[in-house]
Amino acid sequence: xxxxxxxxxxxxxxxxxxxxxxxxxxxxxxxxxxxxxxxxxxxxxxxxxxxxxxxxxxxxxxxxxxxxxxxxxxxxxxxxxxxxxxxxxxxxxxxxxxxxxxxxxxxxxxxxxxxxxxxxxxxxxxxxxxxxxxxxxxxxxxxxxxxxxxxxxxxxxxxxxxxxxxxxxxxxxxxxxxxxxxxxxxxxxxxxxxxxxxxxxxxxxxxxxxxxxxxxxxxxxxxxxxxxxxxxx
Length: 233
Known about the structure:
The protein is mainly alpha-helical and about 230 residues long. It has eleven helices and two strands; from the N terminus they run H-H-H-H-H-H-H-H-E-E-H-H-H.
């Protein structure tokens, strides 16, 4: 009799726990919808974090990481999903890893994930990201491959966002590739500045308001005009 009573109490306890967990999940699902409606990012993060504790899923973790990254909380995003390259990662997870590592000035690690994205969905935007990062890490031949792909596939109406001004702006993606090619040319042969400037001039022909290309041209022109100082023994 005592054993039956004990089993009954345990069963009731499990049932109560299941009901409580179900109620909590419904509560946070409603809370999540309300926070989204109000545009409260911290509330959305709070709701998804609780939901992932109550009913863990990789999809929720990926979504939470994406929201962190979209809110410029890149370290939190990577703490949520990690930085390792996994074949099973969703496109969203790979995107978050790539963007957040780039934002945290980890270009070598960012390249790994951008390469995965490019393999899954080749497009000029990803080619630009790869070329830009590869120039930074000194992978000139890899950058050249991505630039050639981008120049061949970028459409006239494609734009890329730039942030060196106080106010962000967009420039022609084709012009952006010419600008990168100019920088790549300079990295390949620093004694042939004219070739690099000529490529940046092509970028400015396509988009005369491309501020970053203008700044690069000014810097290269200044370097070219600087007198060469002889070293004395």
